[in-house]
Amino acid sequence: RLIFAGVCGLILLAGLPANRLMLLVAGRASGAPRPLLALTNSLMVNITLSDLLFLACVVPVLLLSFLQPDWWLGPIVCTASQATNNATMFCTFYSMVATALLRHMAVAWPDVALPSSRGAHLLLCGAMWGLGLTASLPNWLFQRVVVEEGAVGAVGAPACLLLLSPAQASCYFSLLGALAFLPCMLGLGCSFSHVGWLLWTRPR
């Protein structure tokens, strides 16, 4: 446990300054005159903010949780940290997928006019956060601190768990795969295949 706590401490020490530097660089470039560059830089700012939120709200909780064998940080921290973990993970994932698809559009259809207004950038980044928060809803609703059953006559240990029945868990992971991951994977697969086909059929 102490080793994992030390790893979390190193992640904090290295991650916070690195992401602040990335935010500074990407933030300056987000107003680039080219629409594609401006959009992808806005998504990079989105990814950096998501990583900073993860580092500020999730990694310290992990570090502290490794200091004790049982959950000792209370129900609010349990629910909020796990929900933030899921929200930031999916926000980063969707932002990376959107970046890849935008770059594919620039290669496959270079004449397509991409939106360049600040409102379009905010709408795109807000959509990534909306998708991330939607994916974290089960954590907000069902993540709780429960006392696990111990040996006969022994007091159980508290644990931070996602309280889903087997049927609910099956439904949750099926929906997660079908709605959260599968469309993105299919989109990326089609995107990379199309780029490969364009390169293969390009006149030499």
From TrEMBL:
Could you tell me which PROSITE patterns the record lists for this protein?
Answer: G_PROTEIN_RECEP_F1_2
Q: Name one Pfam family in it.
A: 7tm_1
Q: Name one GO cellular component term.
A: plasma membrane
Molecular function terms, GO-annotated: G protein-coupled peptide receptor activity
* Broad class of the protein's primary localization: membrane
Cell location: Cell membrane
Which GO BP terms apply? neuropeptide signaling pathway
Q: Does the keyword rRNA processing apply?
A: no
Q: Which residues does the UniProt record annotate as the domain G-protein coupled receptors family 1 profile?
A: 18-204
Q: Which domain of life is it from?
A: Eukaryota
Keywords attached to this Swiss-Prot or TrEMBL record, sorted alphabetically, are:
Cell membrane, G-protein coupled receptor, Membrane, Receptor, Transducer, Transmembrane, Transmembrane helix
TM helices/strands, residue ranges: 47-67, 87-109, 121-142, 151-169, 175-200
Which stretches are annotated as coiled coil?
A: none
**Name of this chain's protein:** GALR2 protein
